[in-house]
Amino acid sequence: MKSGIHFLLFAIIIAIFSLNTATATIVTDGLVSYWTFDRIHVIDETVKDVWGDNNGTITGNPKVVPGHVGEALEFDGAADFVNLTTLGDFGRKMGTSTFEAWFKTSNKTDWMTLINTRGAECPYWGIQLNGVKDREGLHIAKETILIHNSMTREKGCQPYMTGGKFNIQDGEWHHIVYINEYRKEDGIGGRGIDTVYIDTEFRGVVNGSRRGWINFPFTEPVYLGARNFGEKSEGHFDGMIDEVRFYDRPLTLKEIRQNFESMTPYDVEPIGKLSTLWGSIKNAK
Ligand SMILES: [Ca+2]
Ligand SMILES: [Ca+2]
Fold first, then answer.
1. 137 and 159 in contact (C-beta within 8 Å)?
2. Which of 13, 122, 220, 224 is the most buried (most CB within 10 A)?
3. pLDDT of 87-138, one tens digit each?
4. Could you tell me the distance, in angstroms and rounded to a whole number, from the CA of residue 180 to the centre of ligand 2?
5. What CA–CA distance (Å, rounded) separates 4 from 181?
6. CB–CB of 46/56 below 8 Å?
7. Nearest-angstrom CA–CA distance, 176 and 99
8. Cα dihedral 35, 38, 44, 45 sign
9. Which ligand has the shortest distance to the CA of 59?
10. Nearest to 82 by CA among 229, 234, 226, 266
11. Closest-lying ligand to the alpha carbon of 63?
12. Which domains, ranges and CATH numbers included, belong to the chain?
């Protein structure tokens, strides 16, 4: 009888571990903000930050539609975006971080912004599709995805870019992770390493000295789906965006894969499932 119970326990434990592998939940270590865009987290013009305190505000008329995980926001390319705020204390001290999102678009021609951390003023960074706008004007680069990062130093704005043509404007869901890693050196500057992963594949890196550069504090609101140029927004996104997260540290490839595989909407994670099962085992005896 006793060995029977042991076998039962063993079987249940194996089942629990298999279940967790099948529905990998997201990494929460270092998670700062998480906007699910699920229907229950979009209330009028407010999109709830389910992890932190940075509730976003909708401008225009994006729609809540079936997404990659639960629901997503669909942007029509005309005046739609979400203001994610300045991200509070995180925005003020941000230097090393991870941005993550799912997106879906089939627009290969119009300049579109996935995210932009600060209008047109240095310092800022943003992720642009089909082109990028900087102080010299709009550069159209069809079917591309570009990370545009500009930082301030004594002689003014210093922009750099990474990215390329990845064939991802194909009407399917794609996962992007942008890691901005800033390692301080001697207290006066540091080394910046920017890494991009698309659908868990390594897609490029910029690694260089940023001695004497001022890294972004976000003193202006971070825009999702558009770029903030003073009083007006430009480069509006045409497509869907889902499961947007910021972390205060670089995610490892293993963690990127875990988030990529997670299909569990935030509110239905099996919290307390283990204790419930243990409770019923005890009762059965
Ligand atoms: Ca969602
Ligand atoms: Ca619109």
1. no
2. 224
3. 988 887 767 889 999 999 999 999 999 999 876 677 778 899 998 887 777 8
4. 31
5. 53
6. yes
7. 8
8. positive
9. 2
10. 226
11. 2
12. 1-23+272-285 (no CATH), 24-269 (2.60.120.200)
* Residue 155 pLDDT: 65
Calculate how far, in angstroms, residue 173's C-alpha sits from the geometric centre of ligand 1.
12
Backbone φ, ψ for residue 208 (5° rounding): -160, 160
**Close Cβ partners of 57 (under 8 Å, ≥ 6 residues apart):** 45, 46, 47, 82, 83, 85
How buried is residue 200: exposed, middle or buried, by Cβ count under 10 Å (0-12/13-18/19+)?
Answer: middle
C-alpha–C-alpha distance, residues 81 and 112, integer Å: 11
Ligand closest to the CA atom of residue 76? 2
Of the ligands numbered here, which is closest to the C-alpha atom of 67? 1
Residue 170, both tokens: 């194909």
- The pair of three-digit structure tokens given for residue 45, joined into one six-digit string: 């013009």
Name residues with Cβ closer than 5 Å to ligand 2, which is an ion: 60-61, 76, 78-80
CB-count burial class (<10 Å; 0-12, 13-18, 19+) for 139? middle
